[in-house]
Amino acid sequence: MAKIIAIVAIEREKIGGGAPIFIEPDEKAMQQTAFLLEKILDASAHDLKNGTIVIVNHH
After folding, report:
1. What was the pLDDT predicted at 19?
2. Cα distances (Å, whole numbers) of residue 4 to 7, 21, 58
3. Which pLDDT score is estimated for 40?
4. Which of 8, 22, 23, 41 is deepest in the core (most CB within 10 A)?
5. What burial class does residue 41 get, using C-beta atoms within 10 Å of its C-beta: 0-12 exposed, 13-18 middle, 19+ buried?
6. Rounded percentage of the chain residues whose pLDDT exceeds 70
7. InterPro entries recorded for this chain (predicted)?
8. Whether 17 contacts 54, CB under 8 Å
9. Residue closest to 41 by CA, chosen among 29, 56, 23, 24
10. Could you give phi then psi for residue 44, rounded to 5 degrees?
11. What pLDDT shows up at residue 59?
12. pLDDT tens readout for residues 27-45
C-alpha cells in the first residue's frame, strides 16, 4: 500500500492532513523541492495539476 510522506504546494489554504507540508512561492520552486524530496526520500512525486505535488512511498 502507498503512503503519502510529504506534500509540496503553492497555496497553504488548500492543504491539510498529517504529512509534512512544504509551501513554495511558485510552480518552478514547487517542482524543484518535490524533485529533491523525491530523491532524498527514495519516493515518487505525483503532480496533481492544481498547485500540489504529493510525495508517495510505494514500498
Report:
1. 95
2. 8, 11, 9
3. 97
4. 8
5. middle
6. 100
7. YpzH
8. no
9. 56
10. -115, 140
11. 81
12. 999 999 999 999 999 999 9
State the cell numbers at 58. 510505494
| CA–CA gap between residue 28 and residue 42 (Å, rounded) | 21
Provide the grid cell at 28.
518552478
- Given pLDDT bands bounded at 50, 70 and 90, which one contains residue 4? very high
Are residues 5 and 59 in contact, defined by beta-carbon separation less than 8 angstroms?
A: no
Q: Which DSSP category does 12 fall into?
A: G
Of the candidates 24, 40, 39, the residue with the CA atom closest to the CA atom of residue 7: 24
Global pTM?
A: 0.92
Cell representation of residue 6: 510529504
Q: Specify which residues 45 forms β-bridges with.
A: 55
User: Which residues constitute the domain of residue 23?
Assistant: 3-57
Residue listed under C-alpha cell 505535488: 53
